[in-house]
Write a structure and sequence with these properties.
With 265 residues, this protein is an alpha/beta fold. Strands 3, 4, 5, 6, 9, 10 and 11 form a seven-stranded mixed beta sheet that branches. It has a two-stranded antiparallel ribbon with strand order 1-2. A two-stranded parallel ribbon has the order 7-8. α2 packs across α7. The longest helix has 27 residues.
Length: 265
């Protein structure tokens, strides 16, 4: 290259500033090579490849296991990597090419393709010892006069985007970047919180959930730089993910819903 890409340290090799500058281009070249191999495999009638999915913890826990089970049964030669992160992590990974697509919240300012999956409601969470425990619902205005803990702004922008237009300024005693930490603090009756229903569906705790008097929700979906230019393996996986989410969420709304029929090809 004509300049150093790495610096050797006691902890191993690290990229130089110039190496960091070149990294996104190298990733694009490597991804183009993967797309070339996958497309050739599809033309030959086979299906091989590798894709990396970025996801919130809540969507990974609820949707990916069932998707992977069915996808792997039909396409055993396609490998899948999963990277869990928050909103800002997924944004970074999408931009630098570390993931093929992200299961994330909606960003109206993004020029990437967007495929909606689900509108996920927020609920209030409090301790059984809380003064709110006897209530049947939670008024968002109470966030201004009680100690609360919320996700950091950069992590859950959807929540703050719902609160700000209502002129609600929470009295934040704590903030965190992890839902599990929030629930642990709430369970000690140190604060109340607002969390997505999808996350709480997978995590059982002693905390109480209260519906909101002023319903708010986040919009979850697939963000991908270009669905048209995505690899065959990525497009296949997205199809399986959409069908799995539809089945799971229909079953959640209707516990008596039948099992999903085989995918017709």
């Amino acid at each position: 290259m004509g300049f150093p890409l790495f610096t050797r340290t006691s902890r191993g090799l690290i990229l130089t500033p110039n190496g960091e500058r070149m990294l996104p281009h190298v990733r694009r070249i490597a991804r183009a090579h993967e797309l070339f191999i996958e497309e050739a495999s599809a033309i030959r009638g086979g299906q091989e490849g590798h894709l990396v999915v970025g996801s919130y913890t809540s969507t990974a826990l609820n949707w990916l296991p069932a998707t992977l089970e069915r996808f792997h049964a039909d396409y055993p030669n396609i490998t899948v990597g999963i990277r869990e992160g928050q909103f800002y992590d997924l944004e970074t990974w999408l931009k630098d090419g570390s993931i093929d697509f992200g299961i994330t919240g909606q960003d109206l300012s993004s020029r990437m393709d967007w495929i909606p999956l689900k509108s996920d409601s927020y609920v209030a969470v409090c301790s059984r010892a809380s003064s709110f425990a006897s209530r049947t619902s939670f008024d968002l205005k109470d966030l201004e006069n009680t100690d609360c803990i919320l996700m950091d702004y950069g992590i859950d922008r959807d929540l703050y985007a719902c609160l700000q237009p209502r002129g609600i300024h929470p009295r934040l005693l704590f903030s965190a970047d992890n839902e599990f930490t929030i629930l642990a603090i709430v369970s000690q009756n140190l604060a109340v919180s607002i969390l997505p229903e999808l996350f709480l569906r997978t995590y059982r705790s002693d905390c109480l959930q209260l519906p909101l008097m002023q319903p708010i929700e986040r919009h979850l979906g697939i963000r991908i730089p270009s669905l048209k230019e995505a690899s065959p393996a990525t497009r296949l996986f997205i199809q399986y993910l959409q069908e799995t989410v539809t089945r799971i969420e229909s079953s959640s709304a209707n516990p008596d819903a039948r099992s999903m029929a085989p995918i017709q090809r």
